[in-house]
Amino acid sequence: MPVRSVRSRRRLAVALLAASLAALSPTAVATTTPPGPRPGTGLQQQLQDLVDAPGGPPGVIAVLRDGRNSRVLRAGVADLDTGRRPAPHDHMRIASTAKAFSGAVALSLVDWNTLDLDDTLGERLPHLPKAWHAVTLRQLLHHTSGLPDYSRSPGFLKIVLADPRHRFDSRKLLDFAAGEPLRFEPGSRYEYSNSDNIAVALMAEAATRIPYEQLLRKLVYRPLGLRDTSLPQGYRMPKPYLHGYDVIPPDPPVDVSEVLGMSGVWASGGIVSTPADMTRFIRGYAEGRLYGPQVVDQQRDWIPGNSEPKGPGRNDAGLGIFRYTTRCGVMLGHTGNTLGYTQLIAATPDGQRSLTFSVTTQINRAQKPDLLRRMRAVQENLVCALLRHRS
Known about the structure:
Oligomer: single chain
Helix content: 25-40%
Order of helices and strands: HHEEEHHHHHHEEEHHEEEEEEH
Low-confidence stretches: 20-34
Distance between the termini: 50 Å
Shape: globular
Strand order of the largest sheet: 2-1-12-11-10-9-8-7
Structural class: alpha+beta
Strand content: 15-25%
Mean pLDDT: 92
Radius of gyration: 19 Å
Number of strands: 12
Largest sheet: 8 strands, antiparallel
């Protein structure tokens, strides 16, 4: 095997393990002043400085939308081989922002009275372990379920590290954690878990007898006009796409865009979309366009808890959505990170102003905590620009 392939495989293993452990690690607390942008630096230069930072992404794109007016900021490249610049219609892996999509499906079914937020796993999915049966849909969406995270199980990690493109049966992913007890009493505390959104999708399928992929098309893609969004099972990316990279200096970046198959993440993070589509999605989702005001009120039941990685400002968790309270105002949205990509989508509660922010490397508190703090500072400055406040 070539030296580069061996090195890439070793780096991949480290990245996968770190990403998995980051999902359930306690929230890191900064002990020093976050390394923010240089005083007086414009937004465009802040993005360029993020690209130029040690371990920074080869590319970054931010789409700011205010009503019908859009502003696109970008730095770096979408593909290191060609030098092509990032574009709003480039495909990308959206990572855990896909959890907002499963939230949209579930809450739409609640609005239709097909599901109820107090439905339990025992009622909808009786084949799951009896110890899990009291967990409710509300707790799954709030990440207060206590379900063990299947993506941290030794059996799952062993398969992925041996064959990152392994074809899993997505509907049996929870089997990897079936022998484990609940981590805590359901509803007693917050803990982000990939298992939650797998269970949400399975509950939606059980209630409708319709595959989750079809529910996404019917309840989310079509109503919001998403034209370039899909939930694949394989590892191929539709073209054109933002290439995702593993960046560990002093080695050159390694293209990891098509390293992982999506069957092993499915409803917890497998969706492929574009900055343009994600802008349409978060505007409609934050506004509550997919369901009525009573469901919106229940979705915005805020508790302490942050998305992964942490979004700008103070984070609080709702049902399938997070509130980001910045120095300039409140945005609602979701973040995500996976091998090669880190995402933020956020919009004002009325859906009129939105930010879609995508970088082409994985940034989280386990692997790159300093870069994460720097990125969050840039994101907050973009929010301030969007809300027409001075940064």
